[in-house]
Amino acid sequence: MARTIVVKVGGGEGISLEHAAESFADLVATGARCVLVHGGSHETNVLSVRLGIPPKTITSPSGNVSRRTDRATLDAFLMAYCGKVNKTLVAMLRARTVDAIGLSGIDGGLWHGERKAAIRSVEHGRTVIVRDDLSGRVTGVDAGLLNLLLDAGRIPVLTPPAITDDGVAINVDADRAAAATAAALGADELLLLSNVPGVLRDPADLASLIGQVGEGGIEDVRNAASGRMKNKVLAAEEALAGGVSRVVIGSARGTDAIELALAGAGTIFEEIWA
Amino acid sequence: MARTIVVKVGGGEGISLEHAAESFADLVATGARCVLVHGGSHETNVLSVRLGIPPKTITSPSGNVSRRTDRATLDAFLMAYCGKVNKTLVAMLRARTVDAIGLSGIDGGLWHGERKAAIRSVEHGRTVIVRDDLSGRVTGVDAGLLNLLLDAGRIPVLTPPAITDDGVAINVDADRAAAATAAALGADELLLLSNVPGVLRDPADLASLIGQVGEGGIEDVRNAASGRMKNKVLAAEEALAGGVSRVVIGSARGTDAIELALAGAGTIFEEIWA
Predict the structure, then answer these.
(1) Is residue B238's pLDDT more than 60?
(2) Do B168 and A95 touch (CB under 8 A)?
């Protein structure tokens, strides 16, 4: 059977959808069984500002920063991720003869998840409890739906949000959703591509990239990662624990980003240490 | 085999998505093979105004009014139709245990179409040619994709835009797209539900509703329809010509709108005259 590869392309500032489509179309042409997962954080921020609801964040007591997702923000999220970014990407892929089909985690209950009941947030030095946030994490992936489409030659293009058992749309981390998807599909490889080239020991120094993560080296990578990168390392660990053979955290820049990542550009995690 | 029913619920002002979801969930529970098509014109208008790009229209020399769809408007269209309305409806249906899956006409090339090369528009009494409009009409429906999902027990929830062979997203009329979908599926019935109860001889008088459209009566209905209703009558004719047995143009109001339309509330077209 063809290799199964899940590619996540970030939605940060500076990521070109055209480049992502070009690079992913080349991968599809190799005959691999492929799924594309994308983000949309920058589009959501831009839209939120235009709508007069500037993005807000939640800072956990341990210092993790995430998007504050109230009802109005979730609507902007749906519009940016599921509307503009997903459909623009699908159209770009179809223009390149890829039989792409865009789905959110809501559709078909593809990504079911659990909403966080209460979130501790540090505001002006005090810890408060936020109870109405529409965010959570993916607890299950409907691999049957993905395989139904893949077996029919359709290429899924996936985006948050996910959905709870009660039918509530929730903001989930797209890197970890991609990891759960790769694990559910028994994927050979997961690529987590964004606007950084991999895990850097010093974010200001590209030469400090950690290349291969060998046996016992995961603690080292965890410690080197900061900010958003912590989440990608966690996603990589989850994918490996779920049976994915290889994860690369690499750059989404350029029209050959996927080819480069598959060739080993970035930070490579292999099951050797899992 | 179960009856196949395509339901289109309009996106005009005053249409409740909760009511539409409730009514459609009841239909799904009857065991019918169902597809839901929805609009999003009011959401698009609201969003466009908030984004500072107020909606513009094109008036044809014959007096038909349609949305002027430039690039910025298409983005707003994607956000409103494919993002907010589609995903909100799918979540509402899933909350009612319907295994709904939302797709735009772009996804999987479900609705392929042709872009209008040039549109004649009457502006300030002069006829001008608009060449950059991103609108067109559906020329083909991928029934294979819909049947793949329906056979797997998934309920498609469909929305414009459609997509050209070149991968360009185009604004298409959702009533006529629903008609093409019903014809492609060999549907038994098509319901076109909106914020009017059917074809009225006098838009101001609900008692002027045309009930049954008998043999030879189509000219009469065409003449009675004005504005947006002209398009619904055209959609009804196209569906019947495509082999659909019965079309009802009726009201989308209330949680039993679909049940009422199936029972004959509205303007009923039957193949007797096709």
Answers:
(1) yes
(2) yes
Q: What is the pLDDT of residues A220-229, one digit of tens each?
A: 999 999 888 9
Q: What is the pLDDT of residues A65-118, one digit of tens each?
A: 889 999 999 999 999 999 999 999 999 999 999 999 999 999 999 999 999 989
Question: Which of chain B's residues have a Cβ under 8 Å away from the Cβ of A153?
Answer: none
- In order of their start, the domains of chain B are 4-273 (3.40.1160.10)
Is residue B155 within 8 Å of residue B190, measured between CB atoms?
no
Claim: this prediction has a pTM higher than 0.90? yes
* CB contact burial A234-263 (16+ within 10 A = b; e otherwise): bbbbbbbebebbbbbbbbbbebebbebbbe
> What share of chain B in percent tops pLDDT 70?
98
Please give the helix or strand (H or E) that residue A269 lies within, else none: strand A267-270
Fill in the DSSP letter of residue B118.
Answer: -
pLDDT score at B274: 43
- B160 within 8 A of B11, measured Cβ to Cβ: no
Q: What is the mean pLDDT of the segment spanning B61-75?
A: 91
Q: Across the strands, what pairs with B136?
A: B115
Q: Alpha-carbon distance A184 to B121, whole Å? A: 52
Query: Residue A133 in 3-state DSSP?
Result: coil
Interface confidence (ipTM) of the complex: 0.95
Q: Which of B47, B80, B106 sits opposite A91 (nearest CB)?
A: B106
Task: Identify all chain B residues contacting A152, using CB atoms and an 8 Å cutoff.
Answer: 145, 148
Provide, as residue numbers in chain B, all residues whose Cβ is less than 8 Å from the Cβ of A100.
107-108
* d(CA B83, nearest CA chain A) in Å: 4
* pLDDT above 90 coverage of chain B, percent: 89
Q: How far is B97 from chain A (nearest CA, A)?
A: 8
**Residues of chain A found within 8 Å of residue B161, distances taken between Cβ atoms:** 87
Distance between alpha carbon A273 and the CA centroid of its chain, in Å?
A: 23
